[in-house]
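Possible regression after last week's pipeline update?

I re-ran a chain I had predicted before the update to compare outputs. Posting the input and the new output here so someone can diff against the archived version. Not blocking, just want to make sure nothing changed silently.
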Amino acid sequence: MAEPTVALPVVGRPAPPCRPRPGRTLTSRAVLVTCAVSLVSVLVTAIVAVPLAVRGAERRDQEALAGQARLAAEVLRPRLETGRTADEERLVLRLRNQGFDPYLVRDGVPDRPGLPARVVRRIAEGRNVSTRGPVEGRRALIEGRALSDGNGVVLASSRAAAPWRQVLPGLWLPLLAGLAAGVVAGLLLARRLARPIRRAAHAAGRLRAGDRAVRVPVEQPAEVADLAYALNGLAAALAASESRQREFLLSVSHELRTPLTAIRGWAEALADGVIGPTETADTGRIVLTEAEHLDRLVGDLLALARLEAADFPLEPVPVDLSRLVADAGRTWAGRCAAVAVSFHTEIPAVPVSAYTDPGRIRQVVDGLLENALRVVPPGASIVLAVRAGGPGPAAGGVVEVRDGGPGLTDDDLAVAFERGALHQRYRGVRKVGSGLGLALAAGLVRRLGGQIAAGHAPEGGAAFTVRLPPDPYLTRTSA
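New output (post-update):
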């Protein structure tokens, strides 16, 4: 039976761009928001401006009507006292042709019905009138001028009483123009805002595809400039990270190839019968040494890969660091003596308590000592020291490894615990390891809640200081 095939994703190929739904793009939303703001602005403007314009139109109409009423009263004053004449008829007709509705009051009686009683009463009392009210069933502006003996002239204008019809035709065009201008401005603004974001999205897609040379031009406003700086910084960081990763892989492959080459060479010699029976034991020891070296490299790589995992095995318990350092000193004293390196331990007379994983801390100490032994020349010294982290039993403990080797510069101290950094700097200059030991030691100490630092040793070389947390039981009892 044929096995089912599984489609694997193609790494490095950018995913096809998804087409945004209508109304979900930044441009469309900005246009909609701007249109809404423009519409609200137009409505608010109309709510405020239209009543003002209406009141202004009413005031102008009222003043114009008052002027006509005064003029008509002056002209008709002598005629009202002598009775109705042909001149009066012509003047009344002219006023009607101008859109006014004239009323002549003689002795307190209007010449025809339709005026409000209060208007007639005021004219009869000799008082002028300026008001609004119904005239013949229609709302109108009313201006009356009183003359002597209860006579007067009243002009009404129903056309002027509807100023909305005059104002609205002159306002809708400016309001519509303002709304259109808001829409156009919103469209231009949306395109201006969306352009750097689209450019940043395109650059991010190129970064995802593996192009680390992509850069986004920095332009205002400040938020867009921050986005450009962030993307450019990300591209530079990715390029630097990948460069370090390539260098690390090259160095690790070189370190793995060295024991593999030795093992393969001696294995081929054994297979070809070149090595005699008397040399077999020595050859086995050499192969075993190289295999152990290879096993340590693989173990360090696996530990580094699992170090950040949540299930990384740690078993912290109360530990006497003095005893742990003494046990390590007995092991390393012989190894140092075999290569003519002086080894010393500095252990206080009282126990130094800490809360940590003894197996992992011994792994850290062995790694630091192995790095020191690799670079220390014959005749120099290595010191393994332990001391309390401070006064009192609840201060934790400090383990220190110092050597009399070539040491580290101030620039080296800043990158000492970066994976492969020192290996890359000193490869081919002096003896170096794979670049994994210090990174692994730093990761283990941090996972255990401690601190690790690199510095200069009084012996002339490098000093690595590990601070471990105190035993919580001692902390509670001493509080």
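Follow-up from reviewer: compared with the archived run. The first strand starts at residue 101 and ends at 106. Marking as no regression found.
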